[in-house]
Amino acid sequence: MIRIIALTPAGHQLAQRIEANYCHLNGLEAKVDYKPKPFAESVQAAFQRGERLVFICATGIVMRTLAPVIASKYQDPPVLVLDEEGKFVIPLLSGHEGGANEWGAQVASHLGAQLVVTTAKPYLNPVYTLGMGCERDCPLDFLESLMLDALAQKNLTPADIQSLNSIDIKADETHLIALAEKYHWPFQTYSTEQLTPMEPLLSTRSDYVYKTVGVYGVAESAALLAAHKVASKTNDTEPELILNKIKNAKATCALARGFAG
């Protein structure tokens, strides 16, 4: 649930615009709260329920209101703050771990606003890459459902993804190819020699996968390498996993991010 909180008439109009366009178009459940009363109690309760919050007001009001209920960046829901004219989007809380930075970038892009990120790498544009591994002849629904789950966990949509990536032995995997075609992504595969340098960045290492294909993790390695290739063209930042490998009965999936200048 996204709760959009506005305190002025102009802010209320912007909140309705975000709800009707951005949220509705992306299939996101949202509610506009105009001058909620009692203000502090209702906002704090929404925050503690884990609702994603968009405030259209001064950052000082937000911080004073949420300060008593802030726990940690690993628990708190993401919080964005916008000015009432919709010129600036500020990811205020849970930027990396909670996904506020990615979410803020999406909202800013939708509004044609300036994203104001104060965490690491503020002057670079994020590029998101998807890595997947699977059993031979894995059905499309196993791949697609896992992919959509991964994106939802980081508040991303298919349109945010730059490419789908895997190991070269999957270059002819029918339904990986079909998934990439359905969402208009390039489908890129890499050799074990290309993937091996990503090993220090993996969240886990599977000896079974290594014995089977020659790398310790297909999904994470492929996503990281694709992000690295994008970033290395314009800057020297390292790629990073934003979603460690998740899996279902037949496939694995991971998300990485690189930064393009």
Which short descriptors sum up this protein?
6-stranded mixed sheet, 9 helices, alpha/beta, about 35% helix, Rossmann fold, about 260 residues
Please, could you describe this protein's structure?
InterPro entries: CbiG_hydrolase, CbiG_N, CobE/GbiG_C, CobE/GbiG_C_sf, GbiG_N_sf. This is Cobalamin biosynthesis protein. There is one protein chain. The chain has 261 residues and is of the alpha/beta class. It has nine helices and eleven strands. The chain has two domains: 2-115, 3-Layer(aba) Sandwich (Rossmann fold); 125-260, 2-Layer Sandwich (Nucleotidyltransferase, domain 5). Strand 4 (79-82) and strand 5 (88-93) form a beta hairpin.
